[in-house]
UniProtKB/TrEMBL annotation:
Keyword DNA-binding in record: no
Organism: Corynebacterium bovis
Active site (UniProt): D65, E137
Binding partners and assembly: Homodimer.
Localization terms from the record: Cytoplasm
Protein name stated in the entry: Ribonuclease 3
Signal peptide annotation: none
Record flagged with keyword RNA-binding: yes
Catalytic activity entry: Endonucleolytic cleavage to 5'-phosphomonoester
Enzyme Commission no: 3.1.26.3
Residue numbers binding Mg(2+): E61, D134, E137
Domain DRBM as annotated: residue spans: 175-243
Amino acid sequence: MGRKRRLTGEKALDAAYSRTDHAPLLESWGVTLSDDILRLALTHRSFANENGNLPNNERLEFLGDAVLGVCVAEQLYTQFPDRSESDISKMRSGVVNMYALADVARELDMGRYILLGRGEMLTGGEDKHSILADTVEAMLGAIYLELGFPVARGTVLRIFSERITRAPSVGLTMDWKTVLLENLSGRHLGEPVYETAVEGPAHDQTFSATVTVGDRVMGSGTGHTKKEAEHHAAREAVASIEATGA
């Protein structure tokens, strides 16, 4: 008797998706979605590529990232009316970053629902920060497309409520070098390189730093220590990425 032929393409996708009861996932999100869009939101590119280049969740992730960003920004603007623009920018980065989104995914037990390729499954992809964070954004993109902005906004505010409330204590002390690294990793833009110079006498030195990715200077900053200068350079780079998307 010959070996059973491995399913590929849409048949593989349908089979993998059908193995799991998605009712608990939808219940944790507090929404109802069609199988078609939920399946797409959960399809990581590794699974799609291994099965005939099927559609994956990256387009939904792009959309969900925008929805999440505007919902959190609006709520911070409203909830903290006395905070400056720079403060709420830091606070937003404290709420919306790869590690925060991955934690949300773990709280919602999303890892076991993500459709992964064999390589990612073997290397623990269901608990990787980047994969979990991207899938949260893809889910928000799916909710926005199928249920509309008011429902997507309500979902964001419910799921991120505690994090938004804690944003002043978390966001204002953000490690901007880590945030920059997350942003670059999520966009596959490479590693940041810092260059630092110092001026002035030993008792009153001023450090300046630039951060470069590839051949592009992404940000610069100054401070009384090398760490402080790099911190400000990284923050400027994050602001540039958020403004331009790259």
